[in-house]
Amino acid sequence: MGSADSKLNFRKAVIQLTTKTQPVEATDDAFWDQFWADTATSVQDVFALVPAAEIRAVREESPSNLATLCYKAVEKLVQGAESGCHSEKERQIVLNCSRLLTRVLPYIFEDPDWRGFFWSTVPGAGRGGQGEDDDENARPLAESLLLAIADLLFCPDFTVQSHRRSTVDSAEDIHSLDSCEYIWEAGVGFAHSPQPSYIHDMNRMELLKLLVTCFSEAMYLPPAPDSGNTNPWVQFFCSAENRHALPLFTSLLNTVCAYDPVGYGIPYNHLIFSDYREPLVEEAAQVLIVTLDHDSATSTSPTVDGTTTGTAMDDADPPGPENLFVNYLSRIHREEDFQFILKGIARLLSNPLVQTYLPNSTKKIQFHQELLVLFWKLCDFNKKFLFFVLKSSDVLDILVPILYFLNDARADQSRVGLMHIGVFILLLLSGERNFGVRLNKPYSVRVPMDIPVFTGTHADLLIVVFHKIITSGHQRLQPLFDCLLTIVVNVSPYLKSLSMVAANKLLHLLEAFSTTWFLFSAAQNHHLVFFLLEVFNNIIQYQFDGNSNLVYAIIRKRSVFHQLANLPTDLPAIHKALQRRRRAPEPLSRTGSQEGASMEGSRPAAPAEPGTLKTSLVATPGIDKLTEKSQVSEDGTLRSLESAPQQNSAEGSPAAEEPSQVWREQRRLSNASASGQWNPTSEWVLSWKSKLPLQTIMRLLQVLVPQVEKICIDKGLTDESEILRFLQHGTLVGLLPVPHPILIRKYQANSGTAMWFRTYMWGVIYLRNVDPPVWYDTDVKLFEIQRV
To answer: What is the C-alpha to C-alpha distance for residues 650 and 266, in angstroms, rounded to an integer?
Structure first.
């Protein structure tokens, strides 16, 4: 059968379908078989030969024919799953139907009148097709389709290796087959790594693509504030109705985490062997993150402690979420499983970095955004995994790639979503004390990044990258400034020794954020100053020894603190400051920050190419909604301050003293400022100026400045090193105010972020599926597609 002929026959069938005004009987096999029986069409062919306009025409003008096409295609998949697809012909039919459904489903979803079609039972469409109406036959089409896909994903000789010893053995019965013995890859809960098979990988990939397309109904519903809208396709597929839920979850997770794009560990190997595994790994990652789209804020999350059993899953009570994929993910508990997952994700996230210092040595993977969503889900749903990640310096293998992505994407409007998820992950990690402690490890990996050269720790790297994002990212990143500085506040009490470069960067930010026109030009800008003062106070109070670079930088820039203490509050001065703003350049410039040369081999962060497609995102909640304040007690345990009675707040750190009603008032005011009606008043400036936590720093300056000046006069010094030596041996014991309690702002799940993740994740999947372009040019409602 020549492929040109089969394409022609297929195309003829499509034309017949669109031109027939009369309904074609479901029993007319001669007609329907043309779509799948004797054709060998690739998925790209199907997309080319079934144009969007024609699918829509059939939908509008002969709906019963479209309904029959879908029903017959599902029926063929069900038959394939029933029979076990032993012949080449049966496998070809299954693949053709799978491709056809992948093509047609988005056009079913985009029309609200059709959306219920797959959830209705087709009269007379019992499995025998003879119309017996017992319950078994009354399954909605969607359920039959999903169960068939699940069966087909564990079909010997089609998607998994057969366990038969010889051809004489009877075919393995697909109904009695225990799919847990056919897991695709070694890893969590499975020790055996099957022989790789290109054919099996491609067949799995096609079925997974159909699965993601089934789940994509979510793209056609506008973002809803109440996240109660569970995706019925995901809900059914991840329920106990799917007998393959556990082995499939394990297969997907292991396939992603075991993947090594280096090509079996040999550099440059990928240039010799084409890598057929990557498309499967991408598809597996996409299916995983969509099935795990579950709002943890509204559901009961399984508890962390439970009796651990010998299985890979922790059989803790309570049973946890109905969604079995979320349930299994939250119950993984073995150290070696955590190690396998963490090493795998870190290896894949570091792949673009390896590229930069050994160009072309490995294949460059493109699915880092899916991996970041997966890592987020793991940490959010499985607290034991989060603690494991932070237990050793392995967490830095996740941190460095995230900082690399953040720095690289900072000027690119089409990658705002990537910036957000990277920052959200760091915010989640920074709520744990161990993260701050781990940052003290020296940074020696020299990944070429467009940042100043420095010698120091991972904390220095984090601060230098954050400074770069704030001073040279694009305007749309401003909502992230609160988050970036909250992360720095959270880790600050644990930072043993900042480098001079990082110390100067922090002071440059304070200088930029404390200019009068910046402070007065929006209702919330002063929060950034509060965060930075809190960082300085934490380091001075808890890590004074070892931080002589920061102390020196504070002394050098002491005028900034004096200006803040003497901030004008009268109306004429406020108006004058705002006038200056009209003439001033961008809010933050590099001036005043000694940039220093960038690292060798690095390229500057580039803006998006004109015409790049991007998807819109819903707004993220403000930092007060994203986080919950907790106080660190003497013994290191955390106590939430959110439910604490209001009068306690006076004892908290001054920076955190603004009670929530002040935040709420400012939310209201800043909404007004967004619509251009912001008018700062004297009362408003006074209300927060009086709370600026300057006491500790002023005391430090009062004690140390005269001593430093005396050294300079006595020794005629202009040399920093002598002053730094003096500061290293100095002490402020007994001279500073009583240390304030450490405040940590921990990320808390909420429906706002759940909605953000949903739109971001589907936007990534939409843009990444270009060959074939599954959703392109269909009427999606969850986000808008924009050109940069």
So the answer is: 60
